[in-house]
Amino acid sequence: MESSIPVGRSLYSRSMGEAKEIGGGAVGLRGFFQSLKPTKQGLALNVDLSLTTFHESTGIIAYLQKRCDFLKDLSQMKTRALAEDERREVEKALKNIRIFVCHRKTDQRYHVHGLTEETTENLKFRDRSGKNYMVVDYFKEHYNHDIKFRNLPCLQIGRSKPCYVPMELCVVCEGQKFLGKLSDEQTSKMLKMGCQRPSERKGIIKGVVEGAFAARSNSYADQFNLQVSKDMTQLLGRVLFPPKLKLGNGGRIKDITPDRFDRQWNLLDSHVAEGSKIKNWALISFGGTPEHHSFVPKFINQLSNRCEQLGILLNKKTVVSPLFERIQLLNNVSILESKLKKIQEAVSGNLQLLICVMERKHRGYADLKRIAETSIGVVTQCCLYPNLSKLTFQFLANLALKINVKLGGCNVGLYNSLPCQIPRIFSDEEPVMFMGADVTHPHPLDDLSPSVVAVVASMNWPSANKYISRMRSQTHRKEIIECLDVMTGELLEEFLKEVGKLPRRIIFFRDGVSETQFYKVLKEELHAVHMACSRYPGYKPSITFVVVQKRHHTRLFHREKNGGLTHYSDQNVPPGTVVDTVITHPREFDFYLCSHWGTKGTSRPTHYHVLWDENNFQSDEMQQLVYNLCYTFARCTGPVSLVPPVYYAHLAAYRGRLYLDRSDSAAISRTTLYRATPMQSAPAAPLPKLRDSVKRLMFYC
């Protein structure tokens, strides 16, 4: 594909489908990923459909109309000027974009370095002969062009010396990856573009490979004497049996086995495994119409009834009358904090839960969570008015499950405990702690904000389904966890309080690590865990360290029989599908597990790579352990695609990131407007500390 656009290990081309506008000056384009990797069958070519966003190639004026909401009518308002905050937003949108000019013929491309302080009408410069020119006069005299948008600044396309071009004469170059943060609407459109059923995705991949190696003359493969099979690798997978699950039933234990094809179960005739008791709770509304507000009493009543049906005790009355505030309150951090403190004081500091109903999604959500969890010390549950107008059975059940687990309850457990399932390694008398760790990094255009790390650990044995978290900020974009020894030490201390003894074994799941970082992460983070353990004299638990990878391009498809389609050709592989041969590493302990049922698109199996194993797991034991744990995730009634310790760590790290997204931090927002010159990383600003009343709860769910 000579006309393809290379991005990393992927190539993008219009031959795989026209670019699709997704709004905001961005387009989505299909391509394919390619890499060579060592496997048990030898060197394997990994090819998969890929998708990414690019800047739309259009005139700068049209681009800004799409990118900036406040400029959407710019073409009809040619005399419009920019306020200072608007100017900063425009500069943020255009900084470092490559453009070409259309007032003269040239193949030259330029980078936008910034905007001029002066408007085009007032801007003057000195030409090579030393003559002073007004920009508008220069373009009229030399190119017979009347500048229309005279009150806009010019683009500064020269780094070392002034070089000004009016915006209306510039066009965004094609093939530039869009690094801006996608909106919810843009993300939804991209997901739809990449949502192909298995048979369709398989056909696209086969077409790419056949097209790449069809023309044999002068091919790169011939020059390197490479022979590439056009057929996908065929292999045998196994489907693991689902575990028997433990639910409640009026104080009695009830067991079910998820035997549906998608391994889902329901709670129609069951209680949660362990219901929480919520006596003191309140409700606050942000925005909404009087009609919306009229839904609240019915919502309180039905939510309380649904909780009761599930074995959760939620007081039928709030401790204070529901409060109705304007949504603008979420823009004022100090007043918001004052309001929440008054609610807490009204119940003498004993508020357990605050339900927050919002008119719509709002950026003040981040402030609300930070204030509630780090200043007030109360668990919150947010929902939107559009859902209250419907009050479906499913919505109320999902809300009840989240509330239960946040307040210390347990929604589901394994009927046969882990010591019963893997007696060779686990026992009731020797507790085990499961840990999960994840690091989230700031936006690609943000060169200053710290990364956020979260570590979670199970606090009960043998159930192993209640996890508490520790979060820290750390050096910008650093992948190795800096304070892992401190966080692990705190979690061990909490485990000792809850269980009464230190864990005999630690199973550590680490997310977000690429293969090139395996050795460094293992060396430094395993050492940090050992350091935390060494603070207890004579304490040396057996540690297993597993890297969990979701961002890869391996896909599993049903095999076609005799070259034809079967009933399963357009279905995803079933939950429990595990592959540990042929496509796995030739020497190391790894496997692919598809633990969930993919309802849309093509399922992506999770890759588990065991880097260190002092517990001497057999492959069957590790695979069954991970698969069974996937049934214990608190927020849904089905197995999830990712082992829960990692899933919880991801949620906790996202919550830590929210603590940094303060709506009143104008200084912070200014520093993240555009990619800055590389600089020494400043010390990371610490995250606010959690209040004791929430730090031992799964508030992040």
Automatic annotation (TrEMBL):
Q: Which Pfam families match?
A: ArgoL1, PAZ, Piwi
Regarding protein family, the annotation reads: Belongs to the argonaute family. Ago subfamily.
Residue ranges of the PAZ domain? 66-174
Name the Gene Ontology biological process terms: regulatory ncRNA-mediated gene silencing
Gene3D superfamilies the record matches: 3.40.50.2300, paz domain, Ribonuclease H-like superfamily/Ribonuclease H
Record's SUPFAM superfamilies?
PAZ domain, Ribonuclease H-like
Q: Where is the Piwi domain?
A: 353-661
Q: What keywords were assigned to this record?
A: RNA-mediated gene silencing
Q: Does the keyword Hydrolase apply?
A: no
From the Swiss-Prot or TrEMBL record, give the protein name.
Answer: AGO901
- List the Gene Ontology MF annotations in alphabetical order: RNA binding
Domain of life according to the entry = Eukaryota
